[in-house]
Predict the 3D structure of the following.
Amino acid sequence: MKSRLLLLALPLALAACGGGNGDANSSAPAASPLPAVAAPAGQDWTQVVSKTAEGYVMGNPNAPIKLVEYGSRLCPACGAFAREGYEPLTNNYVKSGKVSWEFREFLIHGAPDLPPALLGICAGEATFFPVLEQMYQSQQGFNDKLQAMSPEQQKALQNAKPVDVIKALADQMDLINFVKQRGIPEAKARQCLSDMTQIDRLTKQTQDRGADGTVTGTPTFILNGKPLKGAVSWPDVQAALKNAGA
């Protein structure tokens, strides 16, 4: 099957990313504080991770407050949110059992977003969130390497096969070495970069969520099924979580 990747351009000049306009629903009436929920014996809720239809979710699967994030691993606004918010979100809210957090990939930059996304999901539940957080910590280096591609290199990719484009971009960003240092063998990493089922799934997910208006920029946050309009930073999201009773 011809990959939907061909419908995504190769924008090596990273597109602007960020949420829409609004006030992050701050005008909604505040809910009463909810009680904490005990985690399974021998675990805390940050260790409970499962795959969903569109991403991976951390925390109490029955949490009364469900936070969904659509993000790009190369998006500077997503990176800023992660670097400021990952620890307080997981330690103060997910661990309480009141909040679950699901991350869903959105390829806002097209093809360049695919290598980190594919490698981020390569090992499944065990490493998904640690690798996500560490990719955001290292994001600037990935973007700098991507921007350093010469015009000749970029031209060579224009007519290349989708899988070859993905592998070339992964090598340019030195992503294979990055995941090798985090327990993913090179052979497995390269296999994940060639997984056309995942390539098509992630590309379709991006196209569908853009077309139906769910995502207009990254990061996009949804709280208990309702978009947090204008929420981009950790303070925005934290205020919404507290308002919901977290």
The radius of gyration is 18 Å.
